[in-house]
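Tokens for chain A. Residues wanted.
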């Protein structure tokens, strides 16, 4: 099975386990569960040894006791406990985990060690890992919100569209969604917050906000072969931005000029800011089969009527 195909279960699961489900309305484990129950039609398995049930659903003391079908597990517990939970997911035979917990490479020190342990568990067991330090997935087309974003997101209409976002910064992904929904500027297909990219990255998953490129050569090759237009908003361009990227997701931003040149050669459209990213994506969504090899054959006609 190819690398690209091994992430499908994140987008089309039959069952999801939530490790860290909580009854506390102030905790992310409750927000994630509410969001799952609001839109996901498959099986939902809360995992919390302190509860027999959460929100009317049976709660399991361990991921090892969760029945089938379960395609992936969302982990939202303290970073120190995440490694043990990931090991148990691998033992259970779960193909992937989405770690939304923070406290990894973005904080340095012990967090970097924990992140490398997560990476090793995934590689050893062939288990895909999304995150850590991310806000997960929002899919208006399927009505899925696999995220600890506030359940108030359901108060606004989730408008399906043809543009997908891959966002490294969790807070910025939330900002994208709330701005798009509150202003009604465009519909979206998917918004993927991928965080520290210990495994699943931009090469697996079309507009992107990236603070770094984990595998630049592979990413650019995929961009060149893509049948869909790709727009990138690259963070960490300034010295302050680079420091912010390091603190957000533990990312080294890289040389701005080199990255911009490489993106241009791969046919990627680079946005200068958030609003331009929105405008470019909204425009290109009208022409989804536009190839990067079109060679700039675009005419702009401005009609001014006095």
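Reply:
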């Amino acid at each position: 099975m190819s690398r690209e195909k091994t992430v499908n279960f994140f987008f089309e699961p039959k069952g999801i386990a939530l490790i860290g489900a909580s009854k506390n309305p102030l905790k992310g484990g409750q927000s994630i569960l509410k969001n799952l129950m609001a839109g996901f039609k498959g099986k939902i398995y809360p995992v919390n040894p302190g509860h027999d049930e959460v929100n009317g659903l049976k709660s399991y003391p361990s991921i090892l006791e969760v029945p089938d079908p379960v395609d992936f597990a969302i982990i939202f517990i303290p970073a120190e406990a995440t490694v043990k939970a990931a090991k148990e997911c691998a033992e259970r035979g779960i193909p992937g985990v989405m770690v939304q917990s923070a406290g990894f490479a973005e904080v340095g020190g012990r967090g970097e060690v924990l992140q490398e342990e997560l990476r090793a568990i995934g590689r050893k067991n062939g288990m895909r890992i999304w995150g850590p330090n991310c806000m997960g997935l929002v899919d208006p087309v399927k009505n899925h919100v696999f995220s600890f974003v506030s359940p108030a997101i359901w108060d606004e209409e989730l408008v399906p569209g043809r543009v997908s976002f891959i966002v490294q910064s969790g807070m910025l992904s939330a900002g994208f969604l709330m701005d798009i929904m509150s202003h009604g500027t465009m519909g979206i297909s998917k918004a993927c917050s991928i965080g520290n990219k210990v495994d699943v990255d931009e090469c697996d998953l079309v507009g992107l906000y990236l603070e770094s490129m984990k595998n630049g050569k592979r990413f650019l090759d995929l961009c060149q072969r893509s049948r869909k237009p790709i727009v990138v908003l690259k963070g960490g361009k300034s010295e302050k931005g680079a420091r912010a990227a390091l603190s957000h997701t533990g990312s080294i931003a890289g040389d701005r000029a080199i990255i911009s040149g490489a993106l241009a050669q791969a046919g990627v459209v680079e946005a200068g800011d958030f609003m331009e990213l929105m405008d470019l994506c909204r425009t290109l969504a009208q022409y989804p089969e536009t190839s990067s090899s079109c060679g700039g054959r675009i005419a702009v006609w401005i009609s001014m009527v006095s």
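Residues 110-125 form the longest helix (16 residues). The first strand starts at residue 15 and ends at 19.
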